[in-house]
Amino acid sequence: MPPKTSRAAVTDKNGLPSLRLPLFLQGYDYALRGDRNGARMYLGMLETSSPGSAAVALLQGILARAEGDETAALPLLQVANALAPRQPVILLPLALCLQGLGDLAGSEQILFQATAAAPAEAELYEQLARLALRQGKDGLAVEAATQAVTLSPRTSGYLNTFGVALRRGNRLDDAIIAWRQALAFAPDSVAVLNNLAESVRSRGELAEAETYYCHALSLLKAAGKPIWVPCEGLALIYLEHSRWDDARAVLEDGLAATPIDNIAGRRMLLVAQASLLRQTLQLDAALEALRELDGNEDAQVWNARALTYIQQGEKGKAIEALQQALILEEGNPDVLANMCLMCLNLGDIAGAEQILGRLTDEEKTLPAVKRAQALLLLRQKEYLASLLLYEEILQREPDNTQALGNAAYIHFHSQNYDLALRLCERALQCGSREPELLNIHASILLDLRRFDEAYQVWITGIRNAMQHTSWNESWSMLFSNLCMALHYDDQVTLEDHQDILQRFAAFMHDLPDDLQAPHLQSRDPDRRLRVGYLSADFRYHSVACFFKPLLESFDRSAVEITLYSSVEDPDAMTDTLRGLADHYVDITYLSEEKAAGRIRQDQIDVLIDLSGHTGRNRLVAMEYRPAPVQLTWLGYPGSTGLRMLDGRIVDHQTDPDGMQEWYSEPRIRLPRCFLAYQAPGNDPLPVAEPPCVQAGYVTFGSFNNSFKISTAVVRAWSAILRAVPSSRLFLKARQYQDAHNAAALLAEFAAEGIAAGRIELSGRKDDFLEHLATYHRIDLALDTFPYHGTTTTCEAMWMGVPTLTLAGDRHATRVGVSLLSAVGLEKQLVAKDIDDYITRAVSFASSLEDLREVRHNLRDRMSASPLCDAEGLARAMEQAIRTEWRRWCASPGPSYGKRWNYNGQTSFAAED
């Protein structure tokens, strides 16, 4: 069809009398109405009255375009232009014809001529803006569209194009204003409604977007027109809110109304349907939905398949799907960027680097590629370079929640809490509710010791997750982080812990027990056992430091050791542990079900979790019961709440009689300390004199993380400092690198009457020997409560520094009791209550001889104690593992221990 040029464009004010207007206008009007026969009638009159004229050539060209023959139309329009140059009525169809033939540059040149000839004609600027959008010339598009709406401010179509141009120019707020103005003039414009809906949805204003999409959908249904665009938009909104039933209904509606031959429409709806099925863990069904598109795939379809394969743990298939996407859009920088992101999600940093290397310098300036580059730098721990790139991205895309979240993480990692917090809040304002962002936000608040606010962030995310009709493993970390954080707060009771554990168990009630497939292991009670250890901390981490000496000491004739690793960033310690194990299996990028399947396939007899509710744990994999006997040890100071764990490995000091009612797992109490510490290096730093000898005053200290310093700890330490007026307090933790955080802690002490000059705060020491040497500055270490130190207490004792601890009513508050009992110092250094804690600290501060005696004997005492006896721990662990194995061999099936019911009650099996 010819363009809808107004009659003003072909009147004599534009110098067109040579076109013989009456006949031409009649023919042109017929052409506009789609009546080609009527147009040809007037064309015949023109050919008779003015053969060879511009009007004849123009009308012939317009008719050729109306019939879809741009090739035939072009020479006719060029002839018309040559006969009557600089006439907008000729230039406009000529420009559009060139566009149809792919000559965008030529079309742009013609449109510039047209706007110069008729600078007051809004339609010419509208067409120039549309062309600029096709060419990716966002600045020109905005400029041309601005001129169009200035000349014709009440034309809805021009305002719609103006909005598109503004959005492309990253002026989303202005675009939305333009579309709202367009909607005021044409409230039933489906194009405007869809654009407006899509844009407000991108800002997280989902309720408003839903209203616009629903209106567009009703208009299209009433007109009997295709409905797949608003259906897809509504489905994406419902998926965002986890409104699975609504998403399912609108997608079924859209698919039912979209014919099989409408490949584009069905493709978008089926990809959205696959997303719905994927998010509700119906992974096979998601792949089945996409099979309708076999033979009609585009890159988006292959990308959707890849996402499903990733969730299934099928890394190879995911890579193949992405490669197919690249075959369909070879060299497309957006597709390559997605491939790079997928490689990073799969831990393939080298592959991501290789993909980015295929892009030109110009392509690397594109937004999608920049996002991939920024994430690659982040994964490579190039934090400053990554942050600079994210800041550049946010200048162009201020509401990009992924960029906001990753920039927040970098600032959090650098202990720049104020900026990190502000970035998280911006992302939340933009509508992001991704669990990764919520975890970063809450972790920042936890580091700032703003416990109640951190809990609220996690609980908000958990409530969102529990609205799902199916359990979603990506949200389980919210529960785990909340469970972990509760241990730091002195106001949290054991009943509080139990309540959240019950909710965690209920959250996972849809997981299959997988008990229909029997374990195939021989029930020989005395054979060599295949023992698996499951952890994300097979790296330089406190867990690995305590696990390494045990791994070195196992009797390999009794046990065969397999490590199941979820380490994202392996290091030298990873390599060391890999070399000490019989087998090392990387399950980092496997789904929980696939990880459990691999463990079951390996016929592991006893599986031992080392993480509990700590970062990147695989507790959910254990819910599939991949091993006959499943235990937990070391990494987490409390109950997991899981129904599929047969025991917690502890000792009589950490878990004395009377505590079992608060745990979902039976206790397996070793006859010795449940840990073994390995002294650092072959050339350890010597033990120094107490610093008070030279300083003339006692220095108390703690190197625990700041969030272990509860309100009760601040009060107790302040009482000690008041009772010993000349004393000082030295605190070291990574959180104190942030000046705001340090000032906030000092303010709490100031409220207790302790001047800031008496407290020294130090940030983290990256060099390990420098870190150990810092203990030379402390006379007496003060343990935190309700969460005791573990590594810090062992390091302090190794450096000769005694640690005063307070015995509590749960495992987290009794680890210090176990460590000090192992070296025989429980009578001197374990307090029974806070008053006793304060009294003992003051007593030590007044006795230089006691400090010196303990200091100079402590390393030898520790070396000779069970705490440094890894061989003894290995024998005790082997015995405990063997006992549990024999119990299973004698049982008719898997044991559950205490299993949570989902009505808020608990049922008990045998405790020990």
How does the SSE layout of this entry go?
Blueprint: H1 21-32, H2 36-49, H3 54-66, H4 70-83, H5 88-100, H6 104-117, H7 122-135, H8 138-151, H9 156-168, H10 172-185, H11 190-202, H12 206-223, H13 228-240, H14 244-257, H15 263-279, H16 283-290, H17 299-312, H18 315-328, H19 333-345, H20 349-356, H21 367-379, H22 383-396, H23 401-413, H24 417-429, H25 435-447, H26 451-466, H27 476-486, H28 494-507, E1 529-535, H29 542-553, E2 559-565, H30 572-580, E3 583-586, H31 592-601, E4 606-609, H32 619-622, E5 629-633, E6 647-651, E7 667-670, H33 692-695, E8 699-702, H34 711-723, E9 728-732, H35 739-751, E10 759-762, H36 768-773, E11 780-782, H37 791-798, E12 803-806, H38 815-822, H39 826-829, E13 830-831, H40 834-845, H41 848-863, H42 870-890, E14 899-900, E15 906-907
Parallel strand pairs: 1-2, 1-4, 2-3, 4-5, 5-6, 6-7, 8-9, 8-11, 9-10, 11-12, 12-13
Antiparallel strand pairs: 14-15
Helix pairs in contact: 1-2, 1-3, 2-3, 3-4, 4-5, 5-6, 6-7, 7-8, 7-9, 8-9, 9-10, 9-11, 10-11, 11-12, 11-13, 12-13, 13-14, 13-15, 14-15, 15-16, 15-17, 16-17, 17-18, 18-19, 19-20, 19-21, 20-21, 21-22, 22-23, 23-24, 23-25, 24-25, 25-26, 25-27, 26-27, 27-28, 29-42, 34-40
